[in-house]
Design goal:
The protein is about 30% helix and about 25% strand. It is globular, with a radius of gyration of 26 Å. A hairpin with a 2-residue loop joins strand 8 and strand 9.
């Protein structure tokens, strides 16, 4: 049997991948590579190659030649370039992804992204080409190229589905699509941004079902979970979760609401967008274009006899002031805010104009969180660790002799990672820390150490030391120790 002619370094361009659909590539068991005006198909088939070549010539319209490679190598590239769900590993998928020439391109693209557990779809236009990328486990992966002549039609279809103005190409637009296809039903947030060469579109795939969210499965350590639950079980005050966009803050909030959702409580939320739906909770969609802002909604909430209020994000002074007012009047307020650390939330709110003494009396718990990719258990490799790989100013919390690195296999789409896990920094605000807030004391590292509260860096380092993730994943957090 002839060995692989490319020694496991075959790189396909988008134009190569788009010659075949996922269904066709797996059906014929071939990997296409365009060679000038012909196509070479790599296959592990021992017989029937001539007949397959003839079929592919008729299908694609280009002269075809067949090149033999071994089965494991072919499987490697099929899994790498023609992604499909693991449950379809023994059979052809019912639905496949099509190229931009198909009338059903958009529908099948969204369905494929959903099955691959992608969070976002990016459609981008440049001077010479248009491309489609999807985000899986926080990483962008290029999937398709579109012809520039076909790109405007795809954008217009998105605008029509989301109720946007197809004639407006100079201003940003935001919309929403209720996507229903087969057994798939979910909402999509649409954002359109005018760029130099055309309009860039981002589709955020939202999860409507919150039944599988469990607070105890998100990544809290036992001590952090205890500290967090003490804050959310109080009848009033604020619990704030900080972190950058895409760090899982909203998922943590919904898991908390699911825990607090009892028949004896009136729970109200104001969100942008509503990412999950929970029966028993009254959820309000933000609509700033008609005056339904966070602040306006919260003022109305006061007259709705609430017990618990969730604010999607504290993003301005008006929202911060209303959240404080609600917490002071006997309500439990849950929200998110953009800061780099749990204690940084205090400084951020004071900068927004919240009086320090009011914040000290209302803040129950401050949380910071990040999402880290978890190594694929099927292919991660153990190596001796070189301490010179740490950031120069970082001092490890304890010695690590060996670590694991990402390799990539069929189970993880050859990324080396499979899924993500949250790491947290939980600060329960006690009387002493409240005094620090009142006195505007910024450095509380010694106070947190005395309480044995772990930072983001410590919790991330523990995941690394346990072999669950890589140094590359936790590296950005090691500067926040």
């Amino acid at each position: 049997m002839q060995s692989s002619p490319f020694n496991d370094v075959l790189i396909l361009q988008s134009k190569d991948i788009q010659l075949l659909t996922t269904e066709q590539a797996w059906h014929y068991r071939v990997i296409p590579k365009i060679m000038d005006e012909s196509v070479t198909y790599y296959t592990d088939r021992q017989s029937g190659r001539e007949a397959i070549a003839e079929e592919l010539e008729m299908l694609i319209g280009l002269p075809a030649s067949m090149q033999h490679i071994d089965g494991p190598t072919l499987n490697h590239y099929l899994h790498k370039y023609y992604l499909r769900e693991e449950q379809f590993a023994q059979a052809l998928p019912k639905e496949s992804a099509y190229t931009g020439s198909s009338d059903d391109f958009l529908t099948d693209l969204i369905a494929e992204a959903r099955k691959l557990k992608s969070s976002d779809i990016h459609l981008e236009v440049y001077e010479g080409r248009c491309r489609v990328r999807i985000r899986i486990d926080g990483q962008m992966i290029e999937r398709y190229n579109l012809e520039k002549t076909e790109y405007p039609a795809v954008v217009n279809k998105i605008k029509i589905l989301s109720g946007l103005d197809i004639a407006e190409k100079r201003l940003p637009q935001d919309g929403r699509i209720n996507f229903i296809h087969g057994d798939l039903k979910f909402d999509i947030r649409v954002s359109i941004l005018p760029t130099l060469h055309g309009e860039k579109v981002v589709l955020r795939l939202l999860s409507n079902d919150a039944t599988n969210i469990d607070l105890r499965q998100l990544g809290f350590s036992s001590q952090d979970l205890t500290n967090y639950l003490e804050g959310v079980k109080r009848p009033n005050g604020m619990v704030l979760i900080s972190g950058p966009t895409g760090s899982g803050k909203t998922t943590t909030l919904y898991a908390t609401l699911k825990l607090l959702n009892l028949d004896t409580r009136n729970i109200l939320t104001i969100e942008d967008p509503i990412e999950y739906t929970l029966e028993g909770i009254n959820q309000v969609q933000l609509r700033e274009n008609i005056g339904l802002t966070f602040g306006a909604a919260l003022r109305t909430f006061l007259r709705q006899d609430p017990d618990i209020i969730m604010v999607g994000e504290i993003r301005d002074t008006d929202t911060a002031a209303m959240a404080i007012r609600l917490a002071l009047t006997g309500h439990l307020v849950l929200s998110t805010i953009h800061t780099n650390s749990a204690w940084g939330t205090v400084s951020r709110l004071i900068d927004m104009g919240v009086p320090a003494f009011l914040l000290a009396n209302t803040l129950n718990t401050s949380v910071a969180q990040r999402l880290l990719r978890v190594l694929c258990p099927a292919c991660k490799q153990q190596q001796v660790f070189d301490t010179g790989l740490y950031p120069q100013q970082f001092r490890p919390f304890y010695a690590v002799e060996t670590h694991y690195v990402a390799k990539g296999c069929d189970h993880c789409f050859h990324t080396g990672y499979k899924g993500r896990k949250a790491v947290y920094e939980i600060i329960p605000i006690d009387r002493a820390l409240s005094e620090n807030i009142k006195n505007n004391i910024h450095d509380v590292s010694d106070a947190l150490a005395q309480r044995k509260l772990k930072t983001l860096a410590e919790n991330a380092f523990e995941l690394f030391a346990a072999g669950e993730t890589t140094l590359e994943e936790i590296y950005p957090l090691l500067f926040n120790f």
